[in-house]
Each structure stands twice: as structure tokens, then as C-alpha cells.
Amino acid sequence: MSPTTSQRATRRPASETREGILGVAQELFYWDGIRATGVDRLAAEAGVAPTALYRQFGSKDGLIAAYIQGVADAYRDFILEETSTQHGTPRERILRLFDATLAAVQPELCRGCPFLILLAEIPDSSVEAHQIAVATKQWVREQLHSLVRELVGVTRSPRRQRDGEVLGDQLALVLEGIYGSVQALGATGPAKHARLTAEVLLDAFEVARPSGRARR
Fold first, then answer.
1. Distance between first and last Cα of the chain
2. How far is CA 16 from the centre of its chain?
3. What's phi and psi for 208, nearest 5 deg?
4. Angle between the 158-185 and 128-152 helix axes, to the nearest 10 degrees?
5. What are phi and psi of 123, to 5 degrees?
6. Could you write out the DSSP letters of every residue in 83-131?
7. CB-based contact 118:71 (threshold 8 Å)
């Protein structure tokens, strides 16, 4: 039987259906858990049949990959915005990122890092969603290293270059520490000292001579 005029009028475009499902998935996967959220619940809350979900994403794994890719895209935009050159020197942009991150992990907004949550729920490195989460973490690390290279500037000192690489990883570790601690200890726990920790690391790096000896 052909659909009625009313049915044709209310049928949503495929792109709208896809975005609606993704919106629901982002809410449920993040706040309730990926494995704990079934396809039937996702479809019901998105107002579609389970077959529509499979038609759009192929499988739940396909939906999970699309979900974490959307989160990754938004997070990259966040990092790029907060560290844009319009916000000052490399040091100022690094510290701005730590300020913005602390604001973003307040309890009403955050229950932890979505990438770490996903990696805990999906430890299989052959799964696409796992690979997306890992690639995002690698990208953030490289962004911090890029900022540090700007901070170092042009140098022929191998020691200074190595120190810069260490600083980039130290900052990445502190940033990870924010997300790693807030789920259990909240934004008023150790995370609140992350910016100060980044400042201490930057100060120590900036007062060092190219040889690595502290200035007197």
C-alpha cells in the first residue's frame, strides 16, 4: 500500500532522522552509559523505529562510532577556539585552555571524559569508536606540543627542544588529570589546581637557560 498524504507530510528527511538519533545517542551514551543503553530505548526516545536506526548507521557499533566522532569534532573545535592566536601569546593560550576546561567539567555539564568513558567500555582497539577516541587524545597531545613549539621559538639547542617535548607531555598529562579526576572527586577536587600546575610548569621552563641551567 502506498503511504497516505498525511504520512508523506510527516515523514522526516533522512538527514533529520540521523541528527535526531545522534542527539539522543549523545545524551544517553554519555550520561547513562554506552553498553547500558539499548537500541530499542534509543529508537523510542528518538521517535523512530529500530529499523530506521539500523538503516542510518548499520549497527549499534556504527552509531557508537558516529556518536564519538561527533563528540571528537566538537572537542577539536573547542580546543582550536580556546587556543586561537587571537587570544594572545602561546603561554596565555595554554592557560586559557586550562581555564576553559575547568569551566567545562563542572558537575552539571560533565560526568567525566567521554573518550575515557568510551575506552573503558570498549577496550578493543580494533573497534572504530575506540580508534576515534585514541586519535582524538593523540591530536590533543599534538596541539599542546605545537603550542610549546611556539613558546620555544627558533632554537638550535637540542636540549631546549627536548625540554619542550617534555613540557608538552607534562601539560597533556595535567589536562588528562582534570578529566581523570572529576568523575570521582569533582571539579573542586584536584582538578581545581590544574591551571596552577600548568603555570608552575611553564614558569620552570621559561626561567631555564637554553643549557637547562636555571637563571641566577
1. 87
2. 25
3. -80, 140
4. 130
5. -80, -10
6. T-GGG-SHHHHHHHHHHHHHHHTSTTT-SS-HHHHHHHH---TTSHHHH
7. no
How far is it, in rounded angstroms, from Cα 39 to Cα 126? 22
Q: Are 118 and 133 contacting, i.e. CB atoms less than 8 angstroms apart?
A: yes
- Domain positions in the chain: 1-58, 67-216
Q: Which residues pair with 208 in a beta bridge?
A: 214
Q: Express each pLDDT in 74-109 by its tens digit.
A: 999 999 999 999 999 999 999 999 999 999 999 999
Which fold does the domain 67-216 belong to in CATH? Tetracycline Repressor; domain 2 (1.10.357)
pLDDT tens digits, 2-28: 444 334 334 667 788 999 999 999 999
Concatenate the DSSP letters of all residues of 43-56 into one string.
Answer: HHHHTS-HHHHHHH
Q: Long-range pairs for 167-171 at CB < 8 Å and ≥24 separation?
A: 167/201, 167/202, 167/205, 168/141, 168/144, 169/141, 169/145, 170/201, 171/94, 171/144, 171/198, 171/201
Cα–Cα distance list, 192 to 34, 106, 183, 196 (Å):
28, 10, 13, 8
CATH 3.40.50.300 fits 1-58, yes or no: no
Question: Grid coordinates representing 15?
Answer: 538527514
Alpha carbons 4 and 176: distance in angstroms, whole number:
54
Q: Which amino acid does the sequence have at 204?
A: A
Full-model pTM: 0.87
